[in-house]
């Protein structure tokens, strides 16, 4: 393992020196973004990767990192983001690089493919997410899981025990996505579901490291180091998912509704295709929501006045709606403007996908006047963008939900090319409202019933560098019933 790491560092240094010179000659007289470092710097800073890249973004709105054989361009400029995601959408796809890196974990799912494969999956998914039936079913499932989660927290309160809220959110959102999207009851409290979830998280971290490890293909071929661990994690994942697909497709004869049924129809029951669909939906429906909720409750603990303000709004809405807190209606949720703002502020600072890479498919010039070449990675950075003063003002790094509210206290939308947590343009997240609904229901129930604080106020909370922005080591909280306050 030590030898492989040494060879990786040596390889990157040698090739970066050669590449800087060769790219300078190759790029000639055209204008290219300033070089801020090499992929070697990313590897050295991997445990704090997004903060390192935020430091670079604060110096350059858009910059290049040199890697063997190409440049990687990272931008925090909303004009560039809009151009990449919307104006010249067809020229910026996932490309072969992203597909090859993500293939072992996510296969040919909607997050890894372009062209007809993407359009087909997008069309099927769009039909379901626009259906009222999905909204009604999902709201019922979210309320049921919120009640279950409240019972777990209540037990912890009675026994005066701390809880890993991130783990609880992961279990709850995993159960929700399987029930809503696949129509399958998943008792994720059991070891089989927990084993799948751990393997998925570990595989996600190793897959993210591939972006900065130029020797990953060699390690995969030799089946050594992290690539050997990834292979084992994918085996555990596949065993679980293929079993789910087999059980579900057998029941399909008596059921012609739901997201998975539509994909079964499109794919004619191809197990590999369905396996990829399931895992991409798990990535979208479990990790993104659970990580956002985790960071949201962390923010609530770090900013107790915001926590009390959200709890007060929830209580007032419930009184006006004459509604039980565990039977939240759509109308009640729509009135929770501060809660929606606080969740959005969390997404601004802790976006579930902290960096989103595309590949330039033909030579181009971005709105900032600089050029990019075919084959370059061109990525926008939601994590860094949320911390840029030129976008959000001098208080960009501070948690302030009020920035999302107008003078009447009503929630105010921002441009998706400024607030990039849900992408924008043709690839804008289909599950945006789905995710907000789930987060608001879980948050409203828990904050309406309990007050939360960090179990260890002195412990530093950091992220784990992986595809999604998990809290490293979990989020350990304590709660007290609001009736006891």
From TrEMBL:
Localization, per the record, is:
Membrane
What membrane topology does this protein have?
Single-pass membrane protein
Q: Name one GO cellular component term.
A: membrane
Question: What keywords are annotated for this sequence in UniProt?
Answer: Heme, Iron, Membrane, Metal-binding, Oxidoreductase, Transmembrane, Transmembrane helix
Q: Where are the transmembrane segments?
A: 6-24
Which Pfam family, just one, is annotated for this protein?
A: p450
Classify the source by domain of life.
Eukaryota
Write out the residues that bind heme.
Answer: 429
Molecular function via GO: heme binding; iron ion binding; monooxygenase activity; oxidoreductase activity, acting on paired donors, with incorporation or reduction of molecular oxygen
Instruction: Give cofactor(s), names only.
Output: heme
| Membership in a protein family | Belongs to the cytochrome P450 family.
Protein's recorded name = Cytochrome P450
Q: Which source organism does the UniProt entry give? A: Perilla frutescens var. hirtella
